[in-house]
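Problem 12. The chain below contains 360 residues. Write out its predicted structure in token notation.
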Amino acid sequence: MLTKVDFFYDLPEELIGQIPLDKRDNSRLLVYDRLTKSIEHRHFFDIVDYFKSGDVLVLNNTRVLPALLKGKTENGKCVEVLLHKAVSADSVDKNSVSKIQEKSKKNFTVWEILVKNAKKFKCGQTVTFDNCLNGVFLQQRQNDNRLMQFEFQGDFESVLKKVGQTPLPHYIKAELKEKERYNTVYAKSRGDSVAAPTAGLHFTKDLIDRLASKGVQIAMVNLTVGLGTFRPVKTDKLADHTMHSEHFEMDNIAAQIINNAKFEGRRVIAVGTTSVRVLESSIDKFGKVIPQNSDTQIFIYPPFKFKIVDALITNFHLPESTLIMLVSAFIGHRQTMDLYRLAVSEKYKFFSFGDGMLIT
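Solution.
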């Protein structure tokens, strides 16, 4: 039985991609054929060669919020807040909210947040992020996160665009000069995630047009990427790990495109582990994808049996992460670790701004 340590590999720090390339599709591409076991080293713009008419490409069109906020408390203490997810009013202590709302006619929204030394901040303590955004600490959550109520004028996302910063993963130390490089070119207009579906960062509009011209169909799904995607597996036994929950949407159009392809024996190619989670979470008892607006805690690891995904486009993931475990379920543990060691020896770039891999 596989354990967490079976998914560890050595990665030199210099192989962690720190900045995006000038051209998105100039990244390298490792191509692995599951049937023939063949390996090719190409560039991402070559990926069109591996598609054929009738293939379905599934993209996660989520957009990253500028979810990192820096402010100060009333006594001048600096506070750095990372938005995690919006919270419904039912999850909030009504008394603490109503007292605050009585003081102002501004708009309000409540979010679960991450903040250092969360227990040091008392309920009702306020933080000023900008003259257009204030926050108030509410109750503690069971996972040591906090709730914060934000007070603002106008539209919350418009305020975030003015005040917030792009929340890059902890392993990226370089400054991101263009915020949009941490979003896909097909991201929807409004943000909902705190991390990017990074396998999709390699695509350009021209590349998508070339695929469409070849007869490839595009199916858009949405999965809100949360901070859980970066959280390590802490249990030795994989079955003991509690997977984080993420919200997803599968609409009627995408479901019909995917179901038609499966019925006709055409390939469904998922871009990124987030798209895989949507696809493998949307199946009814008859094996069809059904439209839904729901949450998933699906944890995909060997010996998971894929029902929808026929091929996968992905990046190279952190050691011992749920993401490398998903890839391992798709192609086998030994082959996954062999490919990762090969990628290290060939000096591929890893993680969010790294290179890609196509598994057919």
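Discussion. Residues 4-64+178-359 form a domain with the QueA-like fold (CATH 3.40.1780.10). Students who got a different answer should revisit the alignment rule from Section 12.3.
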